[in-house]
Structure formats: C-alpha cells, structure tokens
Structure prediction request, 512 residues.
Amino acid sequence: MKLEGMTALSLGAKTVLNSATELEAALRFIGETRYHSLHPFHKLLHGGKLNKGQVQAWALNRYYYQSTIPIKDAVVISRFRDRNIRVEWRHRIEDHDGNIGSEGGIERWLKLTEGLGLDTAYVESTEGILPATRFAVEAYVHFVRDKSPLEAIASSLTELFAPNLHEERISGMLAHYDFVNPDIMSYFSRRLTQAPRDASFALDYVKAHAKTPEQREAVCNALIFKTNVLWVQLDALYHAYVEGHIPPGAFVPKAN
Amino acid sequence: MKLEGMTALSLGAKTVLNSATELEAALRFIGETRYHSLHPFHKLLHGGKLNKGQVQAWALNRYYYQSTIPIKDAVVISRFRDRNIRVEWRHRIEDHDGNIGSEGGIERWLKLTEGLGLDTAYVESTEGILPATRFAVEAYVHFVRDKSPLEAIASSLTELFAPNLHEERISGMLAHYDFVNPDIMSYFSRRLTQAPRDASFALDYVKAHAKTPEQREAVCNALIFKTNVLWVQLDALYHAYVEGHIPPGAFVPKAN
Prediction:
C-alpha cells in the first residue's frame, strides 16, 4: 500500500480506509516511511559515527522521553472506564517504573547514562536537555489526555517498529563504541520482549475499535503524530550536537 | 546583572532575587541573552541572506504561532477571577482576531504569507508546518493553562524585547528583499505600538505580584520557557530550510 498526500500532520484527504486490513496496511506504511529508524541521527549512532559526547547528548535527552512514558501511560489508563483495558495497560507502568527492589526501564536507562559517564543527578534534573525534547515529549502526554481514548492507544503503535530498531542499535553500538557494553544496553535487550506484546495488543485494539473510515484516519494520524514526537527529538539532537548549534543552557559535552 | 548557572530550563539554584528591581534586572538579562533576536536564523532573515522559499517557510510556520496567540490569551483570561485583569487582557485577543469588518494581527499575517506567494488555504490548514513548530506553540498554550496565573502572565514578557526586533525586521526585510513591501509588513508595524503597552502591563504585574524569591524565580523561569518556545521554532526552521533537513510531509519550497 502507498499513501498519497500524507502531510507532516495527517494522512491527507485522498486516503479512505474501508477495513481493518486497510488500516493495518496504512499503519505499516506510515512506519516504513516515517519511523525514526530512518533518521540520519540513528544512522550515525548505530554506525559508530558519533563521539562519546554526542552519544551522551542522545542518552541524556532520551532519558526525558523514557522517564515520561509511565506518566503518559497513567494518563492513558485514566481515559478508560473499562477495567479490562486498565488492567492490560497497567503493566506498561510497571515495565518502566519497576517495583521496590526490582529495576524497571528507567533504572536501566540510568545505567546507560551512568555507563556513558553522565552524572545521574544531572540526568534526572533534566535541566540540560534540549527544549525541543521537552516540548515533543510533553506533546505526547497532552495528546493522550486531550484526544480520544482510541487515539491515545493508537499513538503507542510505534512499538510495532521498535524491535528491529533496538536489535540494530544493540549490535551497532556494541560493535562500534568501546564505551558501550551489554550491561549498559540492558534497556534495549529487555524491550525486545516487552514491546511486541504491547504492540500486538494496541494493534488488535485499534483494528477492532476503529469502525469507520474517519476513526481509521484518526488512528493513522495518531501514529503520524507519534512518529513526529520521535523524529523531532532526533532533528533537535542532530542540529545541536552534529551541526553544532547547541541552544542556550543545554548540555555541552566535554571535549573528547 | 549577570545570572550565573542559568540552564536550558531555569534560572538555576545560585540566583536569589530579593526585590522587584532585582526581578526586572534578571528579566532583562534573560532577554539580552536568550531572546530569539540573537538566533542565527534571524540574522539571515534580516540580512537578506535567505531566498524566497526560506522566507516562505518562516512565514508559514510563524503563522501557526500567530494564530494560536488569541487561543493562548483566552486561556490566560480564564485563569483570573479578577475582572480587572480579564478586561485588561481581553484587548490582546481583539488585537489578533480583529472584529467583523476590521482586520486583526492574524489577517495581517495572512497578508504577509499571501504577499510571499503562499496559498492562504494551505497556510490556514497548518498541514505543512514543522512538527517542532506545532509542539513548541502548543507547549505555550499548555503552559498558561497548567502553571500559576502569575507564570501565565510572565510568559508573555518576551514582548518587552519585541519592538527592537520588529524595527530591525521591517527595515532589514524591506531593504533586502524585492518580494517584500510595506503593505505585507503591516503586522510588524502595527505591533510596534501594541507590544509596548502589553509588555509594560505584564512587567508591572509580575513586579507587584511576585512577592517572594520563589515567585520571582518562577517568573524568570516562565520567561526562559517562553524564550525556548521562540528559539525552538527558529532552530527547526534553520535545520529544515537552511541546513536542508526537511522532515517528512513538511512544506517544500518551489525551486527559486
């Protein structure tokens, strides 16, 4: 399936999705053409083309995204009167927050930033992240609060495309960077099993609950929105740390 | 006054503001060091270094900011039980929306985009703007809704620094671009008289109502937030249209 007329914001007027099968094909096309696995910054990151300071900047900024996900998921849960969905969605918060005495995704991410030599208190303060990172991540929380519950679930569908990216990232970063080891990459290895379960639930949900062409369009636009949330973060990293335009007050890597 | 330890997000822990005079000095220092008049994209825009397509991209994206301001100001009004403040703030909506039969700032901005050769329906659709523009502008609306009324007013204080920028813009763009004329620049000439009135009210308000160092810090952080809202928009334009990394589905200028 090829989607004509997709804009930065939406599927565009030309596309009418008449079935769940067409919806899934459209969602997969959006992933193939808009997911941040295609972004030049990831090519540099996975190909060993970044220096340690640039990898630090990526991990520092991405921490804000990671640490906001359970907040986003708590908002998603709050949108549903249906207890079954709340129960199904709840494990996502646990995946990231862990439990007393057992680590979650956020702690695994801090292992990465600590392993890269960043001070954990500075990372957790988020004082040095790029303003564009903050705006993009907060847009995700506002989206799941302000849009329909169907769109809130649909915006998580980038997870359909995450495992391939994580596999490429683990192998690429371990192969190319002497400051990376399997232990600090444990966030990604763990997500290889978590993301597919989450993605298949969300995909089944939107296929079953988007019953009209308008609802299917809204589902696709929610995924386009989410691909923008991810893409904007990498554009900002590329502009600041590859092209060298670091905005006022943001993290400045020590000379490598 | 020099502020040490200002981050991308905040004034930092080192600064304690003990009076309204110190608050105003800090606000002016933030403007001198963080206002987007300092951004490289503005140097190019005002210096005649951009081609018509790049100026179109700026006007197209900035339209989303302009057209969101009355929505932002309606949210600000909604935060106040004090009728006097609502009455004072109301004219800002009128400045941008105009009245039946009289144009406001948004129509003046559409004169600019139309004068630059952009289709008004496309501009109004906002389908082609950079996702980073959308996230930054929407962050401003969320900020005035979610923060304190004092911070909501403080976030408007970038207007203290706008007149100098607008004068530089009017003279620079008229001098350098044959596709710019005084009529399509009427938005900026009109703001030369509107912005100072608005800014002086907001400055007097925060000086009178921020009574503790903590409140003065919150006022400064609101202004830092707002400078980020503006800076992020120009970073995104620079990355997409100067360095040539246009994100998927965003406006692509016709070859000049």
Remarks:
- Chain B touches chain A at residues 6-10, 12, 33-34, 40, 126-132, 134-136, 138-139, 142, 224, 227-229, 231-232, 235-236, 238-240, 243, 245, 247-251 (CB under 8 Å).
- Residues 213-242 of chain B form the longest helix (30 residues).
- Chain B has eleven helices and no strands.
